[in-house]
Design goal:
There is one protein chain. With 502 residues, this protein is mostly beta strands. 0% of the residues lie in helices and 47% in strands. It has two domains: 21-134, Sandwich (Immunoglobulin-like); 145-499, TolB, C-terminal domain (Neuraminidase). It contains no helices and 40 strands.
Length: 502
């Protein structure tokens, strides 16, 4: 039976664990083998205790988490610490005083005994009660990963959220979070009536929810199924799109990019088929799929008027191949990337192109580089200050290697220069991923990279990169004789947890 494992190039620590959960308060303790424990509250003496009705309940949707509830006679703020002998754990605090308390404890590693400590949130905290919880194992839909580099002092502390894509249609679609030490700390499985992947997952900090699109394979083309979902950390579906028949890259579904915007609306890309030519339409819809704004390449025939194909001899002409679109915060402009054509800025009101970034574009290149412009790039990002562009640059026509490249650009002088480039060759890490992949800015200044679709014997991997070009964290995916797990993109974020070892 395959289980999730993390392989370090050092010795393994083997220890025994108990399957018994316990809860206790001063002068009172109970213990049994159930997954849910409760302090009796029949007599009046119980109400005099610091807390009562203490209960620990496992979360069946995610066995690396549990629910903690208890009552206090008076309204009071509390906080909880939970940790194991081999995991330093976390602290979670309440925002306000209350008498009925609820904590969702998550981010645990699998098959561990966790001690739970409940404290009063005061200038001098008082330990009110303790409990124990034994975490379960991750499901078989979560494949093994292998941590190969971890320079902890240079890595952003956080979790990595991603979907593992494989050719195994017998298992449900799943997404997983991995901590900096390479351990799974959260997962979610989604059942669909056919073969599907969960794609492009993103952690939404404002709500602590996960937003993810459903990549529906051709076997699902005639089955009405949602395009995307929003879930909470407990694994509950908070929202799902209308159920629509169609599959990935069909004219009724979406492809490449399915995201939640800051205003709560949805943006995705939809294919347009005209005879044998495939192009794209950018769609902005509300939660009920009412159209708010849309634009497609055929809407601007004066600008996009020269059709070129990846392979002129192929049955289908893949012309524009867009892979991302996003508006600015005021929805005045929208940016979109056509891998073979360039990266564009458009006025959303007039639907006029403001500029094109790339080869034969609007900007003059100031840097002296043999390959100055992106070649078939993926999922570009604009830095928060609006002065830099970051590309995961796959390579297609000009180069035989992939790279991460950043440009400083000036919209007044219409000039650009290369500010950062990493191809891995100086450290023996050069790679070629002709498809997929991603590069993101991190809060600590590093860049987080999804290597994308590679060929054997190369591993698909995730790595964190410093501005001086050092790989300080890297995780390999599963690869064996039967299949290879690949990653389309990933989201690294700082979770809403306080790490106890900081």
């Amino acid at each position: 039976m395959r289980r999730f494992s993390v392989i370090f190039f050092m010795f393994a620590l083997i220890f025994s664990v108990s399957c018994e959960n316990k809860v206790s308060i001063p002068s009172q303790e109970i213990s049994d083998n159930d997954t849910e424990e409760e302090i009796p509250d029949e007599d009046a003496d119980t109400a005099q205790e610091p807390l009562f009705n203490l209960k620990v309940e496992k979360n069946e949707k995610n066995l690396l988490s549990c629910r903690l509830t208890f009552s206090t006679k008076e309204e009071r703020k509390t906080f909880v610490k939970y940790y194991s002998p081999t995991h330093s754990g976390y602290k979670i605090a309440e925002d306000s005083a209350k008498s009925e308390h609820y904590f969702f404890l998550w981010g645990m590693r699998e098959n561990r005994d966790y001690k739970i400590e409940i404290y009063s949130d005061e200038e001098t905290p008082k330990l009110l009660a303790t409990a124990e919880f034994h975490s379960g194992n991750v499901p078989e839909s979560v494949y093994p990963v292998y941590l190969v580099t971890n320079e902890k002092e240079r890595v952003m502390r956080g979790f990595v959220l991603f979907s593992q894509v494989s050719d195994n249609s017998l298992e449900p679609a799943s997404i997983v979070m991995i901590d900096n030490d390479g351990f799974p700390v959260w997962y979610y499985e989604h059942d669909t009536p056919g073969f599907a992947d969960l794609e492009d997952p993103e952690f939404i900090k404002e709500t602590n929810h996960i937003f993810v699109g459903i990549h529906k394979y051709p076997s699902m083309a005639e089955i009405p199924v949602e395009d995307g979902i929003e879930i909470d950390l407990e694994g509950n579906i908070i929202w799902k799109s209308p159920e629509i028949a169609g599959s990935y890259y069909s004219e009724t579904s979406w492809h490449h990019d399915y995201k939640l915007l800051d205003d709560g609306t949805i943006l995705f890309l939809r294919a347009i088929y005209d005879n044998n030519v495939i192009t794209d339409r950018i769609m902005n819809v509300d939660r009920d799929y009412n159209e708010l704004w849309n634009w497609g390449y055929p809407d601007s025939p004066d600008y996009f008027n020269t059709i070129t194909c990846v392979d002129p001899e192929a049955e289908w002409c893949d012309w524009t191949h867009s892979n991302t679109a996003f508006p600015d915060k005021d929805k005045r402009f929208i940016y979109f990337n056509a891998r073979r054509l360039g990266f564009y800025k458009m006025d959303m009101a007039t639907k006029e192109i403001v500029w094109k970034f790339g080869k034969d574009g609007s900007f003059t290149m100031l840097s002296d580089n043999i390959y100055p412009w992106p070649d078939y790039p993926h999922d570009p990002k604009i830095r928060e200050d609006g002065k830099a562009l970051l590309f995961y640059d796959n390579a297609w026509e000009e180069r035989t290697y992939s790279r991460v490249i950043e440009y400083i650009f000036d919209e007044d002088s219409m000039t650009a220069e290369i500010s950062f480039e990493f191809d891995g060759f100086s450290s023996g890490r050069g790679w070629l991923a002709p498809a997929w992949g991603d590069a993101d800015y991190l809060e600590n200044g590093n860049i987080f990279v999804t290597k994308g679709m590679v060929s054997r014997p190369e591993n698909s991997s995730l790595f964190e990169l410093t501005r001086d070009g050092q790989v300080v964290w890297e995780l390999y995916t599963e690869m064996n004789d039967d299949f290879m797990v690949e990653i389309y993109n990933a989201d690294k974020f700082v979770p809403p947890l306080e790490f106890l070892d900081e």
